Amino acid sequence: MKHTLALALMAFSLDAATASPLNVEARQGAGSGAGPYAPGTYKTDSSLQSHTIYYPTKTPANNEKLPVLIWGNGGCSNVGTSNSALLQNIASYGFLAVAEGAPSGGGTSNSASMKAAVDWVTKTAGTGAYANVDASKIMAAGFSCGGTEAMDNVWDSRVDTIGVISSGLLSNYTAASQWRKPVLFVLGGSSDIAYQNGERDFKNLAAGVPSWKGNINVGHGGTLNNANGGTFGKAILNWLLWTFKNDTTAASYFTSGYKADNWQVETHDLDQLKPF
Ligand SMILES: *[C@@H]1O[C@H](CO)[C@@H](O)[C@H](O)[C@H]1NC(C)=O
Ligand SMILES: *[C@@H]1O[C@H](CO)[C@@H](O)[C@H](O)[C@H]1NC(C)=O
User: Fold this and answer.
1) Separation CA 31–CA 89 (nearest Å)
2) pTM for this model (two decimals)
């Protein structure tokens, strides 16, 4: 059963990754996103060749720093543009996002390659082109198999919060009871193959761990391939804006704003969340 689910998480997203190469090419260079620093775009850096780096093309004023999202793709794919609509939009709000895999990368990623992105951020933040990157604010998140990488990196003291998107633990089943960081769960409803796992992990959270879990009945694939990552993308962006930029409008999405988007929500000690 466990093996079957792992294979399913893998297979599903390889489909998703190959479904929209034309869209990805069209966006390349031009960038996209709806934030104040749009367009968000992406590049590679010779110091981190196996990842894709998303950044805002307009520089935030007043020395505002860029918090960081480290992103794992579905299928643990190493195609760094698998979720480029989502990540360009997040970048356009004043974040650096590092996705696993080069833009046209191949093969698969794992928890260690996600950690390599955290290592790179902590080494390069504050230097050169990354002078305004804030390595003290790091979220690790991912879709499906990528979400399992984020959960594996929750133990890393440099990671402040994690995002579990259409995902849940595939081993070490009770580990969520040991997590001590805010957790965002974004799930695709009861037809999502990861639904039971995500629900279980949410239920296992210890007292005092702030968490928001939202389901919409869209299935495992969610809405990440929609413009700006769709409704899933909206929840991920608002979580980043709340936890790392102390944005009160974004915070209110998790107490009331979500209702307009038809999420089915459960929260866990969410009132204890303190922005970083
Ligand atoms: C499994 O969970 C425990 C906490 O319950 C944690 O200390 C350990 O690092 C986890 N192992 C892996 C491989 O994630
Ligand atoms: C967040 O904003 C509130 C007021 O809106 C303020 O009291 C609090 O200190 C801020 N937190 C951080 C970490 O900046």
Assistant:
1) 9
2) 0.91
